[in-house]
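Quick one, probably user error.
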């Protein structure tokens, strides 16, 4: 096919080419990823041992973010037993952490903690020698306490194991009533000093809860007692926390 010699094809400028072929596609991809992780779902990794024996270092869970937004608009609520990701108050010694590599230059971030909701707004809570009571009922915590009893390391004597000594209460005694709009969260690690949670820094408001860790994603299989088993699973609500009134 012959080209018209009078037609001159304009060569795109470098910056136009750079925008069309690089900047715009990358920007669109970043925007889509941001929208997905903000409003649809994201994942969180487990760091530390504050939720043993149910969560382990290096595991990764899915967090459906749309549930969180629905709750913030008054549709539904988090339930007792839910594993949630929360930002602790700035009063917590671990609320601000250095960024990897950039931390040496003073760059920091606020990490999420993974904790279990044990108290809803209006609940009355107390602990006596490691036994959790909700609204006057002793809670069967077979999802965690027997493990620590078998280890000979169940915390019954520390300030966290007794509600009259919870640090955030600053001398108050007796049952603690969770304020409206707040949630009381605890780690499953019931060894002495095993978890920094609401017993340390108090209940957390709804807007500090990033979402419910609903599904174990990684690793898909684990080796336990010499046998490989499926690790991918829904994170079930502990039976002892289901029917509290």
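Nope, works fine. Designed sequence:
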């Amino acid at each position: 096919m012959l080209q018209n010699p009078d037609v001159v094809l304009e060569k795109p400028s470098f910056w136009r080419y750079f925008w069309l072929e690089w900047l715009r596609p990358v920007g669109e991809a970043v925007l889509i990823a941001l929208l997905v992780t903000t409003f649809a779902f994201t994942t969180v990794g487990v760091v530390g041992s504050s939720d043993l024996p149910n969560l382990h270092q290096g595991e990764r869970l899915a967090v459906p973010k749309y549930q969180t937004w629905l709750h913030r608009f008054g549709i539904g609520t988090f339930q007792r037993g839910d594993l949630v990701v929360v930002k602790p108050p700035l009063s917590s010694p671990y609320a601000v952490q250095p960024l990897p590599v950039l931390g040496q230059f003073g760059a920091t971030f606020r990490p999420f903690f993974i904790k279990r909701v044990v108290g809803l707004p209006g609940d009355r809570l107390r602990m006596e020698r490691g036994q959790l009571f909700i609204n006057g009922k002793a809670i069967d915590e077979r999802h965690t306490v027997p493990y620590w009893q078998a280890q000979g390391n169940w915390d019954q004597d520390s300030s966290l194991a007794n509600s009259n000594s919870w640090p955030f209460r600053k001398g108050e005694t007796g049952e603690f009533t969770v304020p409206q709009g707040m949630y009381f969260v605890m780690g499953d690690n019931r060894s002495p000093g095993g978890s920094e949670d609401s017993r340390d820094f108090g209940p957390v408001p709804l807007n500090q809860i990033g979402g419910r860790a609903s599904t174990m994603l990684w690793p898909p299989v684990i080796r336990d007692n010499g046998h490989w088993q499926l690790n991918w699973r829904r994170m079930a609500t502990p039976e002892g926390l289901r029917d509290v009134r």
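The mean pLDDT is 84.
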